[in-house]
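Notes to self after the Tuesday call (sharing in case useful).
The group wants a holo model before anyone commits to mutagenesis around the pocket. I volunteered. Ligand is protoporphyrin IX containing FE. Logging inputs and output together so the record is complete.
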Amino acid sequence: MALLARILKARLRPAPERGPWQPRPTDARLPARARAEDKGAGRSGAPRAWGRAGGPRSLAAMPGPRTLANLVEFFWKDGFSRIHEIQQKHTQEYGKIFKSHFGPQFVVSVADRDLVAQVLRAEGAAPQRANMGSWQEYRDLRGRSTGLISAEGEQWLKMRSVLRQRILKPKDVAIFAGEINQVIADLIKRIYFLKSQAEDGETVTNINDLFFKYSMEGVATILYESRLGCLENSVPQATMDYIEALGLMFCKFKTSMYAGAIPRWLRPLIPKPWREFCRSWDGLFKFSQIHVDNKLRDIQCQMDRGERARGGLLTYLFLSQELTREEIYANLTEMLLAGVDTTSFTLSWAVYLLARHPEVQQTVYREIVRNLGERHVPTAADVPKVPLVRALLKETLRLFPVLPGNGRVTQEDLVVGGYLIPRGTQLALCHYATSYEDENFPRAKEFRPERWLRPGNLRRVDNFGSIPFGYGARSCIGRRIAELEIHLLVIQVGPGGWAPACGLGFV
Ligand code: HEM
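Result:
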């Protein structure tokens, strides 16, 4: 392991910036189902707030920060970068269910494992995550379709049922392992190149940038069935433009958040967020459209030659004709948007944790060598043979979930924690806060991947304490892709090491 550690010193940035899309309130549009019970209330520590007459209390009685304080926190003190901290702070101050106003917007936050489980288990066939008003407005403005993230109701159901057939289950994505391994081979070449350029001949810095390019190349290989060249020495200009557009959306200006939070009437006074938001979307759609069109042209040529078109996701979408061309553009644009920094930040945190815990790095390394052998290029079927690698990912996402919460708009009146939450209320389900509770995860602040190896200790409901991919019908559709990309990379580039006569390690 000392050898591994010597070869690659991956100096990590300790805290990659988050790229969340976060909830905003709206009316629920779908018909209500049965009223959910207040199952969670009453567990030790869970709030119960019945009114004097014995019925649920109204939202007026719910505690929460003052509107002005909240506005200052988010707009003055850059709270959109610290949603996870604010979530924890408010949970400590106001309890496990509290309300917040953001100007005209109203959100009820739920930071209790059982109450989160109750809300999610009660949801209907087409849950609504948040008000996607600003996303919808852009699409109306440019005559674009919505994709899986921004669509609602019947349209979302239709698109989800098409896409889920190809990427929702581990066995569906297992077929992409070969393509992902090719991207990993390119990443390794790139690491060796960067090492050769380094002053000390061995230290690779800015690993987050490297993982960003890996994640983008990996997911694009699956989505567009083509390579983008992110890991080349000279990255193509179109790909650079895309990276800039993505950076604009999430990192530099938290554009998506501000564009959604600033009301339309204020835009003439504060025009920048909306302008940047549109510019960013223009870039994202343009890039996706170029790659979709290229692939579809290839498929069409194949068919014109009388050949049978074979391929992955895009070929399937084109041939099945279940989605329109515009819907294909929109879905691939939104999936690429959702599938790059989520995966790369998780990888950065996983590697950071390994670097900080060399004893865990050793154990993972030994497991990989014992169960798969050294310098083994794994398939998807190999992943279950290294349960510690899977546990590493779960523990990383528990401690550093890319999205600190999940959003839901209630589609019926609900009683949660003793409060009556009317239909159409925006809920923020705070899994960052629940992930750090000792009650849910003993010694919660500690990095202990082995906690995930003992399923006997975790009752099923405990999993609601950490739901980094969300839950249910509206959960992350790219989860299996992300897991495959991360597992295969950790096995080859991580502590297991790779490459003739040496391995790679993180210090
Ligand atoms: C570590 C990586 C990832 C994390 C932590 C993550 C997390 C999430 C979360 C929390 C949600 C919301 C779930 C809910 O509301 O219940 C979500 C939704 C979504 N994710 Fe991911 N994601 C990751 C990777 C990916 C990838 C690789 C893709 C695409 C290939 C992707 C595509 C999507 C899409 C399209 C949605 C919206 C689904 C819908 O509304 O039906 N994600 N993701």
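Two things stood out.
Residues 1-48, 496-503 have pLDDT under 50 and may be disordered.
Residues 177 and 492 are 13 Å apart (CA to CA).
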